[in-house]
Write a structure and sequence with these properties.
This protein is an alpha/beta fold. It folds into 2 domains: 47 residues; 244 residues, 3-Layer(aba) Sandwich (Rossmann fold). Helices cover 28% and strands 23% of the residues. The protein contains 7 helices and 13 strands. Helix 4 links the parallel strand 3 and strand 4. Helix 1 runs antiparallel to helix 2. The longest helix is centred in the N-terminal third of the chain and has 26 residues. The radius of gyration is 24 Å and the shape is globular. The two termini are 43 Å apart. Bound molecules: zinc ion. Zinc ion binds next to loops.
Length: 322
């Protein structure tokens, strides 16, 4: 693509001026056209190399580890080489009247937030952002937030706690035959048994987020959220985990990796990620990076790492150097 520029420069300097002799006009126009094409190719190439712009939102969470997990997720996204990451943090308690990120500056928003409602204008701008094609990634207790915010609950598909019950929508899970169950029974949304390592079962391997993952892989110790419920519209369950009654769980195969369509927007939701130890799992890290790429509308090109967990073995990354 440098060739047309070089040729034009040479041509102009040979002439010594922009005065075009008879018969040179066509040649000059051709060269200008080539130059324009060259610039066009250059622009596309640099666009393709541009990183995904991600924004992590945090500031309030019943999980006191949140400042650490935000930095861990920021690190995982940046270390993938695919993202630049900003963080927007609310005031530590109550509705923060000044919390008003410019959502449209970002390709994807990662929520590590479980706290007081955002100001109404911020909720409205966020709805428009996702409706119009923005990406959202929901991590663990972020699906506890905003039990009364109708549009947020449509975005996340399923949630827990926060006053959720049968009015929030059905429980959504797979039965022992692998069939999807939408259970309208009365009852609270959100529960978990004892923390333990558990097996993730890929149910839909034909999705960019799960493609190439082992069908079964061991996730590091975590809370296994069960009895989540919500509008459950446009939800595609990519992977589940069995919430064993032996651990105090529901006895159901609970969604662990989900994607949800909301307007033109894409949402990736994982209820995994309770503790910093849970988020060191290479399966969690891979799901986060791929899920954020997908939600951003980008090509999911993050390869399954060599140290991905196996069916029998948890695999974790060492603590990040601060
Ligand atoms: Zn938790």
């Amino acid at each position: 693509m440098n060739l047309p520029i070089a040729r034009l420069t040479a041509n102009l300097s040979r002439r010594g001026s922009l005065v075009v002799p008879t018969g040179g006009l066509t040649q000059l126009l051709t060269l200008l056209l080539l130059l324009a094409l060259g610039l066009g190719v250059g622009a596309r190439a640099s666009w393709a190399e541009e990183k995904i712009k991600a924004l992590i939102v945090d500031g309030q969470n019943n999980h006191g580890i949140w400042p650490t997990t935000t930095q861990m997720m920021k690190g995982y996204l940046e270390e993938s080489g695919r993202f630049t990451v900003d963080v927007a943090t609310t005031a530590p308690q109550g509705t923060d009247p000044d919390f008003n990120p410019t959502w449209s500056d970002y390709d994807v928003v990662v929520s590590n937030y479980n706290g007081a409602p955002w100001p109404e204008a911020t909720r409205e701008s966020f709805e428009q952002y996702v409706e119009n094609g923005g990406g959202l990634v929901v991590i663990h207790a972020a699906d506890n937030a905003f039990g009364d915010w109708t549009e947020y609950n449509k975005m996340i598909g399923l949630g827990g706690w926060g006053g959720r019950n049968e009015r929030s929508g059905p429980y959504l899970y797979l039965d022992d035959q692998g069939d999807l169950v939408r259970d309208e029974a009365a009852g609270p949304g959100g529960h978990h048994g004892a923390q333990h390592p558990f097996t993730i079962i890929v149910r839909d391997a034909d999705h960019p987020i799960t493609r190439g993952m082992p069908i079964a892989w061991m996730h590091e110790r975590d809370e296994l959220y069960d009895f989540l419920r919500g509008p459950a519209e446009n939800v595609r369950i990519l992977a589940t985990a069995y919430a064993s009654p032996d651990q105090g769980g529901s006895g159901r195969h609970e969604p662990m990796l989900m994607v949800i369509d909301y307007g033109k927007g894409r949402v990736f939701h994982t209820p995994m990620g309770h503790g910093d130890y849970s988020q060191r799992c290479v399966g969690f890290i891979t799901s986060l990076v791929r899920g954020a790429q997908w939600a951003a509308g980008a090509e999911v090109d993050f390869a399954i790492p060599d140290d991905f967990p196996t069916e029998d073995e948890v695999r974790v990354r060492e603590e990040q150097k601060q």
